[in-house]
Amino acid sequence: MSSSLADVLATLQFERAGEMSFLGRQLPAPANHILGGHISAQALLAASLTAPDRTPHSVHTYFLRPGDSRLPVIFDVVALQEGRTFSARRVTARQGDEVLLEAMSSFTAATPSAEAVDYQPTVPEVPQPESLPRVAPHFAEAEDTTPGQWASLRWFERRTVDADTEPPARSRIWWRPDGAVPDEPVLTAALVAYLSAVTLTEPAYAVRGGVSVSAQRDHSVWFHAAADLTDWLLYEQSSPSSTATLALASGTMFNRTGRLVCTVRQEMYFPPPRR
After folding, report:
1. pLDDT, tens digit, 9 for 90 and up, residues 128-164
2. Entry's PANTHER family (predicted)?
3. Neighbours of 196 (CB within 10 A)
4. How far apart are CA 69 and CA 176, in angstroms?
5. Which of 81, 134, 258, 266 is the most buried (most CB within 10 A)?
């Protein structure tokens, strides 16, 4: 199965559609579905184009409609704040009159301080990725589901450390891009957000016995340090709670050096069968 990283990176480049509007291409997918991680990464990058010289601090996304991957998406950006330390942007992603996504992004300028306080969770002690077997990037690419159909999922490599099926269904994976990525801070953050949304569905699936009909409802990422995409990153994931048709998933990601890269939360909706 060949890497789709070059295609993914190409779709993270935009055509300008207006002073604060950008046009982004999508990737082929079954049922012409737009992957949540992909369009949210695009929204973060579109917002960043209006906040030059600042890096992502956080992004909070609501997925409202599935969209059509055969068509481009327009990303309209609104500047909400321009301060000395933070810039805030709202992004609306749409196809025609249909709004697919609303995202709030915060960007920050480097502000070194002698009074800074640093602390973080301890990185888990796990086997190194080189000692683990290669696996498909995602459950949806497994041999018994839809092998080779999700171009938007084939841009990274992974190694699975462990995965539980009982709540909270903790899983730990190593991942890295399947190819070279330009050393650009905002692009790096966008790919981290992309991956964080893609695999964070898996703990909730595991509790329910496998991949099922679902939709990402919202997704949030807080960035703590730059990811090193030249090496493997460790992503610890779980699904700590579920109520009725909604399941919450949480994750923390570390560079191999042990530095905390980001904290992630995501909620998924599992609709009841239609009768």
Report:
1. 999 999 887 766 665 555 555 677 888 999 999 999 9
2. ACYL-COA THIOESTERASE (PTHR11066), ACYL-COENZYME A THIOESTERASE 8 (PTHR11066:SF34)
3. 28
4. 25
5. 266
Q: Residue ranges of the domains in the chain?
A: 4-110+129-269
Distance (Å, whole) CA 10 – CA 243: 39
Tokens 């369009």 map to which residue?
39
Model pLDDT for residues 178-227, shown as the tens digit of each residue: 999 999 999 999 999 999 999 999 999 898 877 778 889 999 999 999 99
Q: Which two tokens stand for residue 40?
A: 């949210």
Q: Looking at domain 4-110+129-269, does it have CATH number 1.10.260.40?
A: no
| Rounded CA separation 8/145 (Å) | 22
Give dist(CA 119, CA 167) in Å, integer.
28
The length of the chain, given as a count of residues:
275
3-class SS string, the chain: CCCCHHHHHHHCCCEEEECCEEEECCCCCHHHCCCHHHHHHHHHHHHHCCCCCCEEEEEEEEECCCCCCCCCEEEEEEEEEECCCEEEEEEEEEECCEEEEEEEEEEECCCCCCCCCCCCCCCCCCCCHHHCCCCCCCHHHCCCCCCCCCHHHCCEEEEEEEECCCCCCCEEEEEEECCCCCCCHHHHHHHHHHHHHHHCCHHHHHHCCCCCCCEEEEEEEEECCCCCCCCCEEEEEEEEEEECCEEEEEEEEEECCCCEEEEEEEEEECCCCCC
What are the tokens at 5? 């990283």
